[in-house]
From TrEMBL:
The keyword Ribosomal protein does not apply. The lineage of its organism: Eukaryota, Viridiplantae, Streptophyta, Embryophyta, Tracheophyta. This is tetraacyldisaccharide 4'-kinase. The gene is LOC109713493. It comes from Ananas comosus (Pineapple). One of its GO terms (molecular function) is lipid-A 4'-kinase activity. One of its GO terms (biological process) is lipid A biosynthetic process. Keywords: ATP-binding, Kinase, Lipid A biosynthesis, Lipid biosynthesis, Lipid metabolism, Nucleotide-binding, Transferase. HAMAP family: LpxK (MF_00409). The keyword Kinase applies.
Amino acid sequence: MEFLKRAILRIASTPDARLSELPRLHRRLLLPILSSASALYRLSLLLRRCRRLLLSPHRVSRLPVPVISVGNVTWGGNGKTPMVELIARFFDECGVAPLVLTRGYAGGDEAKMLKRHLQDTSAIIGIGANRAATAASLLNKHGYTDACRVLCMEDHTLPHKFGPHSDNGKVGVVILDDGMQHWSLLRNVEIVMVNSMMPWGNSHLIPRGPLREPLSALGRADILVIHHADLVSDMQLKIIESTVLYICATLPMFFSRLVPSHLFGVKNPHSRFPLTMLNNSAVLCVSGIGFPYAFFHAVRELGPLHVGRLDFLDHHPFKASDIQLIREKAAKLAADYNKETVVVVTEKDYDRNPHILGEIDDINVLVLCSSLQIMPLEGKSEDDFRMKLKELLIRTKSAP
């Protein structure tokens, strides 16, 4: 199964013009099967769209507060969850309590990370596959208020101007984590994240490629954010922009990156260590995420003497054999560089595997914490992003 998953990932990242570089087994056996499966998937998307158009309005849930969807058109590594956190903090600073809805699948690592990051805010985290039902239950429990009333007031961007828990913690806005393909809830704003390092893969639908929808789906977006914009050239950014603007010429675009903030120990998530702790050390990066290169690059920029990698598949649950492999890789690095090796994992990997990682006593295992930042590119800052979000919410609120 591991071999099959890696083979599919390799095919999905290989452009059609370079298919000859794939192993013969991939080309002769897997490629035809995946192409047929993608054709069936395309048909299912068409049927879902027809069903959605034919559904009467009462079959789609409309919440009494604005709904912001954060999603993507490809799988993995697009920065959706860090963007959800940034938006939740924005509303908390405005005095509006946000309700974050997440599916909590594959170990619930995103939900656990959001809970830890937002524990000092008024944010409420709702977990469940049926997000309409989850939202209804939590809105009934906490109550709801008019977020647009607060956003329309002057100087709303001042931190906690209206109190950190305005209206006694009543929910003012709902944020859907990974919500672009979730049709059961009407949304006011659609934010789409794009991974600049592999924006469309081989441009085929899953499982032949990484696209969850055809690129024409970008036309539904209200805001597009090009993530990891600090890791690619200006030319690559321009190519992505051109593709997007060909589909939707007026779509507002922003640029983001992940910025490391601190480290903590796997045995104590409340600990906090400076990033300089990795200076002049040998580090082994261990990750099971959708796009491990960005994590590896971030650690390498912190100044270690050497950085090694051990990549697992996205959402991989660590087993005893994996821990033994980590020990072996760390021991080899220590011998090669005559330094004690520090193992660094991502927050998602920690939240998915806290117990087994916490049982490691013979290696120093740290967790790297990062947050999303809107980059000041092309004259667009984080303040501009917030103002655009506010503008869209107020516009949809006033629409008939």
